Predict the structure.
Amino acid sequence: MSVVSLKTERELTYMRKAGSAVARILGEMADLIQPGLATIELDKLAEARCRELGVVPAFKGYHGFPACVCVSVNEEVVHGIPSAKRTLKKGDIVGLDFGVSYEGWYGDSARTIPVGAVAKETQQLLDATSEGLKRAIEQCHEGNRIFDIGHAVQNYVEPLGYSVVREFVGHGIGRSLHEEPQIPNYGPKGKGMALKAGMVLAIEPMVNAGSHEVRVLADGWTAVTADRSLSAHFEHTVAITSKGPEILTLV
Ligand code: MG
Ligand code: MG
């Protein structure tokens, strides 16, 4: 049986703190991105800033993941491992996926950032994925249903010629990084569990320029597009309230 926990207003105050630390550190990592940067530097910054802000990096050691932040470049979809050997180049896109806990409460967010000037088609993929997330969040009202969220993403990005990754989905979040329910980024409008105030959801569309299929590389972590087309990923942690959606992963 799947149990979806509803958060109290007091619990949300902790989740706002976790979320705002996530947003702040993600912004600092984004500011560091430039051609020539080794991706390990993003992880070093994230780890140091977690310590300074009194939050715990959520990904390091999670199922054995070796770093604080997932750094996924170009055709990498998610779960890329930062490395001293991987250097960013002008025209790349870099997905940063980052989470922390504060007093045992989690926040999770992602964004994909261009390295210098990128091709127009590349920027369009980023813009479409970010807009897909925005439209998904707009569905986070009491009485709507889980699949309304993914439907909003799919219905926006597919007519633009992109595809939505199936293998990885959004999730509930709270005392654990991943809780029920799962939130696919596709699906039929009006179906699935009803949304209730107090639910907190990490909504995270992954959108590919080519086919939706993905493969996991030999490192056991890095997911890439099967056709090696570009992929973008944006995520926010969102509370459903009686007044509508509240994004927790903002500075
Ligand atoms: Mg994430
Ligand atoms: Mg997530």
In short: Residues 97, 99, 108, 110, 204, 235 surround magnesium ion (ligand 1) (CB under 6 Å).
